[in-house]
Design brief:
single chain; nine-stranded mixed beta sheet; 430 residues; alpha/beta; 37% helix; Enolase-like, domain 1; three-stranded antiparallel beta sheet; TIM Barrel
């Protein structure tokens, strides 16, 4: 197989903003297309997404410059190469970009090509993407692990016009025995929550990731509403369903203070930790993401010490899928889990290396979507190929979210006895 052509064009993501689609064509006319997502609450240390800054198009968010870089700078580097040489191809693009944050070509341009190359290689070999990607996983033991969904059913923060300070309220179907059960549990609770909100005269408007965004009085009120919905749907909290949050605390952090507007409080890091702990005492919250700001290493460390092996403490803005920041977190004991978003770092190879480094050091990995998504399902195959055991990809609503769940259901159906659903990796206190 040889790469014979690369094409790129502008498409729109789930927020109506432009992003990139890229097709890699092989010399036997095999082709595959990848689409890259975009975040709203982005970490300071993420790789740079190149935008046109032309106010006459898409309010300055166009990606024609990044597309031009693909066609004029990246394509000549890769023509004639074997697409299965993923690391070599990604390294070529990184070196040619010649910046630490991929700000020259744009991480969105580089990633679009990186993912399309992998898809084309898999297709050229007539292999499902997850099977092809598994060859890059030195820990693969022959059984594919379907990731346990962390379904976002209520949105706040920047994803929902600050209906709450906490950005995401998620449910984890810890009692499910298969992907089809996991999806069903969550979908039924999502519909139950919609009914609960209607009955209580709340709005059922949804945020960027499909979760409901009612205008509640406090951050805790959402937990009471979801708890009621879980019960109405016929499930048991702590047995069938547990909770997870993404606080996205960098978004409400300023001048060493965490401002919770829904609580009318300004808190120190220690006081914010106490706020979370009180919620954890009342509700089965077993996974907490970005509970402090992206450079608040000390409070992350203290909270991880408190959590021990009972709670998952996930670093997203803290790590931004970056090996160097992950190494620092490992040395300091800042978290016991990392969120994986490949557009934070910009290539498939770097993403894989980050996943493997986390596993080598006892951290779990949660594969994640972005708030500005496409119908591309690459992350579903990635989670299966590397047995990460967990995936965040939004509510069981909106096609850019359900596409990933439907892909996982397809893999479960296709792989049969070769696949099983992951269990939550930390102790669950019922």
């Amino acid at each position: 197989m040889k790469i014979s052509d690369i094409k790129a064009w502008e498409i729109i993501d789930s927020r109506g903003n432009p992003t990139i689609a890229t097709k890699v064509i092989l010399d036997d006319d095999t082709s595959a297309t990848a689409m890259v997502p975009s975040g709203a609450s982005t970490g300071t240390y993420e790789a740079v997404e190149l935008r046109d800054q032309d106010s006459n198009r898409y309010m300055g968010k166009g990606v024609l410059k990044a597309i031009k870089n693909i066609e004029e700078k990246i394509k000549p580097l890769l023509i004639g190469l074997d697409p299965s040489l993923q690391e070599e191809i990604d390294t070529l693009m990184i070196k040619a970009d010649n910046t630490e944050n991929k700000g020259n070509f744009g991480a969105n341009a580089i990633l679009a090509v990186s993912l399309a190359v992998a898809k084309a290689a898999a297709k050229g070999l007539n292999m499902p993407l997850y099977r092809y990607l598994a060859k890059f996983n030195p820990n693969f033991n022959g059984t594919f692990l379907l990731p346990l969904p962390m379904m976002n059913i209520a949105n706040g923060g920047r994803h929902a016009n600050w209906s709450t300070d906490i950005q995401e309220y998620m449910i984890i179907p810890i009692g499910a025995q298969s992907m089809k059960e996991a999806v069903r549990f969550c979908a039924e609770i999502y519909q139950s929550l919609k009914t609960t909100l209607k009955d209580k005269k709340y709005s059922t408007t949804v945020g960027d990731e499909g979760g409901f965004a009612p205008n509640v009085e406090s951050n805790e009120e959402i937990f009471t509403l979801i708890s009621e919905a879980v019960e109405k749907a016929g499930y048991v909290l702590g047995k069938d369903i547990a909770f997870a949050i993404d606080a996205a605390a960098s978004e409400f952090y300023k001048n060493n203070i965490y401002e919770l507007k829904k609580e009318g409080k300004e808190l120190s890091g220690e006081e914010l930790a106490d706020f979370y702990k009180k919620l954890m005492e009342k509700y089965p919250i077993i996974s907490l993401e970005d509970v402090f700001a992206e450079d608040d290493w000390d409070n992350f460390k203290n909270f991880t010490i408190f959590s021990k092996d009972k709670y998952q403490v996930v670093g997203d803005d803290l790590f931004v899928t970056n090996i160097e920041r992950l190494k620092k977190g490992i040395e300091e004991g800042s978290a016991n889990s990392i969120l994986i978003k490949f557009n934070q770092i910009g290539t498939l190879t770097e993403t894989i290396k980050t996943i493997l480094l986390a596993k080598e050091n006892g951290l779990t990995s949660v594969i994640s979507h972005r708030s500005g998504e496409t119908e591309d399902t690459f992350i579903a195959d990635l989670a299966v190929a590397f047995s990460t055991g967990q995936i965040k990809t939004g509510a069981p609503a909106r096609s850019e979210r359900t596409a990933k769940y439907n892909r996982l259901l397809e893999i479960e159906n296709e792989a049969g006895s070769e696949v099983e659903l992951a269990e939550f990796p930390f102790k669950i206190n019922n």
